[in-house]
Amino acid sequence: MLSQVRKIIRSLISKIFGKRSDIKIGLYGPVNAGKTTLANRICMDWLGEELGSASPVPHETREIQMKEKVTMEHNGKSVTFNLVDTPGIATKIDFEDFLKFGMKAKDAKQRAKEATRGVIEAIKWLDNMDLVLVVLDATEDPINQVNITLLGNLDARKTPVLIVGNKIDLRKANLERIKEAFPQYDAIGISAKEGRNIKEFYGKLFDMI
Amino acid sequence: MKLKIKFIPYEKTDGNSFGRLLKDLKKDTIILIDAKLNPEHEAELIKRTMEHVSEKFSGIELSSIELATKKDSASAKLMDVLFHLTTGKKRGMTIIGPAHIIRKIEKNPEELMVYV
Questions:
Q1: For B43, which residue in chain A has the nearest alpha carbon?
Q2: What is the domain-level CATH number for residue A72?
Q3: Residue B32 maps to which CATH number?
Q4: β-strand B92-98 against B60-66: which pairing, if any?
Q5: Range of the domain at A196
Q6: Tens of pLDDT, residues A170-183
Q7: Which domain holds residue B96?
Q8: Contact A60, A66 (CB under 8 A)
Q9: Looking at the domain assignment, is residue A153 inside a domain?
Q10: Residue A26, beta-bridge partner list
Q11: Residues of chain A found within 8 Å of residue B63, distances taken between Cβ atoms
């Protein structure tokens, strides 16, 4: 309730004084969907530096990471925002899953502990976002509880959403499946790793800010 | 291992009841709720679950279905709105289970398939 009032006040201020520069764009989604890879792509393209480290080991991002004042240009106009990369949301975290990646038991347990805190933080930060990029792995079935809960919460907060189907460079990728699962949202397919369709993504993002 | 299934009416589930619910989940109990949890409650449950994750309890599997679909007739949609307004709950079902017991929950718009 309070966050919605805050959002309305911010929107009124922006209407009176023009575009804000403290807009927060959050990258949210399940684990290993490529959120940090996309955050790094955006930061490299517009700031010339990366935001965080990406890895095939789940829960590589275990803390909220933010890059301030990212200025993006499109068709002769520019917009500035703060980019927030969040830990992947999960309903379970088993330290034994990390052992499969050759991690020592002690490190795996520590990673699991940090990952649980990361999920809690990511959920808490939902209230602070002005726009959310829901990053989904386009090779995976999009109908899972994490995605449904996440989109339901963004909808309840009236936060604008762009669904980003990542990993379209992989043969198993299926953007149509995402569009069919969540027809009420705008969705775009990209490969954050290879940069495929990234210009179209920036165009859509620019239009939403 | 004995598998227990506990039925909880939606009216008994709110943010305050999640502690008790997690206690059951940690004792290998599957919980069934006679309505769809709202998204804020789902997020709160995930947050509370993360606070309880340990070497012995890795978390939960959670899924819910809503009976109302986009293909419903106008009268069916109206019935759902009236039901929601009068009872405060959405017609459907929620299933929550410990992740070490429930392997996966497959969901299609009208049914849930639980693999234990």
A1: A149
A2: 3.40.50.300
A3: 3.30.110
A4: antiparallel
A5: 21-208
A6: 999 999 999 999 99
A7: 4-115
A8: no
A9: yes
A10: A84, A132
A11: 145
